[in-house]
Automatic annotation (TrEMBL):
Name under which the protein is recorded: 2-alkenal reductase (NADP(+)-dependent)-like isoform X2
Cross-referenced Pfam families: ADH_N_2, ADH_zinc_N
Enoyl reductase (ER) domain mapped to chain residues: 52-353
SMART domains: PKS_ER
UniProt entry keywords in alphabetical sequence: Oxidoreductase
PANTHER family in UniProt: PROSTAGLANDIN REDUCTASE, PROSTAGLANDIN REDUCTASE 1
SUPFAM superfamilies: GroES-like (SSF50129), NAD(P)-binding Rossmann-fold domains (SSF51735)
Length: 358
């Protein structure tokens, strides 16, 4: 630490939430605070014994950020509970890629690159440093650590391989298939020798699925008046694996189309996040008839597999066996609209905010 030396103080623009979001999120629910400053050193406070000062480079926009309301009562020692996503007096918290400017944690040093939970601001003091991963491979774009090499990549990997246990020749359906998680699930399914179909909300995204990500089939769910008929068209013999990203009507349409011993990995239900009352699901009886398994999962519980995941995915990226599409906006001022855009499907690929090029 800098000891008694003069400490530089710099501007620290931050994105803050005005209040907890209770309906459809809007850009105006957040604002850019341009008057904040920060001293570029790790404070001597008791809670900063292992803290790090980070310069944020890339921030990740993720659907979970919309709704998680942190209550102080929930504060506990678990990683998930300590993550404060939306507190009105602090910058929004989310995944990002950053450079270490100073570290009181002996596992990290100045100049290291990390990914994990950080703040929507130019510089962050992170006290919960156990949520940060050191970046060792820098011969890929750094922004990939917000996506394919970070939390969404691990989500696709854990959900597909660990929850769904795919077998060669099986049929796989992925919803929100062109997004951060979906585009990877589809490509993992192809690498596993499966037949894979995805759905997305625009023609451009459907084209991406077929032409760039190698899906065997794809459809625009917004243009299908009868989702059951659409699924029957692509899966006349039924679905072995459904990777669930959207919930609601889509889940209801999928259930009767599952095959015996099918698996549904419930990754998320984005169509439900902005509803005051979640829609009901009517076709659950098909789980019984098909002796199918439907299992929710959280990526946090699979981070112990991160090393194994990198061993698989890094060579696949470098050999061109896996491709990846990002949607990058520049500047913290663009972050609120980028986050909100996830719920209108404006993002084409993984939504990233570039804060600084270093
Ligand atoms: N379980 C976990 O640990 C975990 C971790 C990460 C993410 N997730 C979940 O995984 C899912 C995908 O996340 P992501 O980061 O990859 O996001 P993403 O797919 O990159 O972006 C969200 C996409 O969802 C689609 N969408 C938005 N509103 C919709 C609606 N009402 N109905 C249908 N589709 C809608 C939009 O695509 P279209 O244009 O195609 O509609 C939008 O682009 C989300 O449900 C998320 O919550 C779970």
């Amino acid at each position: 630490m800098a000891g008694g030396d003069e400490v530089k103080e710099v501007r620290n623009q931050q994105v803050l939430a005005r209040d907890y979001i209770s309906a459809i999120p809007e850009e105006s629910d957040m604002y850019l605070n341009t008057s904040s400053t920060i001293k570029l050193r790790v404070p001597d406070d008791d809670d900063c014994q292992e803290a790090m000062l980070l310069k944020n480079l890339y921030l990740s926009c993720d659907p979970y950020m919309r709704g998680v309301k942190h209550s102080d009562e929930a504060a506990s020692s678990t990683l998930e509970d300590r993550i404060v996503f939306f507190a009105t007096d602090k910058p929004i918290t989310g995944y990002g890629v950053a450079k270490v400017l100073e570290s009181a944690n002996p596992k990290f040093k100045q100049g290291d690159l990390v990914w994990g939970m950080t703040g929507w601001e130019e510089y962050s003091i992170i006290t919960a440093t156990d949520s940060l991963f050191k970046i060792h491979n820098t011969d890929v774009p750094l922004s990939y650590y917000t996506g394919i090499l970070g939390m969404p990549g691990m989500t696709a990997y854990a959900g597909f391989y660990e929850v769904c246990s795919p077998k060669k020749g099986e049929t796989v359906y992925v919803s929100a298939a062109s997004g951060a998680v979906g585009q990877l699930v589809g490509q993992f399914a192809k690498l596993s020798g499966c037949y894979v179909v995805g759905s997305a909300g625009t023609k451009e995204k459907v084209d991406l699925l077929k032409k760039k990500f190698g899906f065997d089939g794809a459809f625009n769910y917004r243009e299908e008046p009868d989702l059951d008929a659409a699924l029957k068209r692509f899966f006349p013999e039924g679905i072995d694996i459904y990777f669930e990203n959207v919930g609601g009507k889509m889940l209801d349409a999928v259930l009767p189309n599952m095959r015996v011993h099918g698996r549904i990995a419930v990754c998320g239900m984005i169509s439900q996040y902005n509803l005051e009352q979640p829609e009901g699901v009517h076709n659950l009886m098909h789980l019984v008839i098909k002796q199918a398994r439907m299992e929710g999962f959280l990526v946090f519980n699979y981070y112990h597999l991160y090393g194994k995941f990198l061993e698989m995915v890094l060579p696949a990226i470098k050999e061109g066996k896996i491709t990846y599409v990002e949607d990058v906006v520049e500047g913290l001022e663009s972050a609120p609209a980028a986050l909100i855009g996830l719920f209108a499907g404006r993002n084409v690929g993984k939504q990233v905010v570039l804060v600084s090029r270093e």
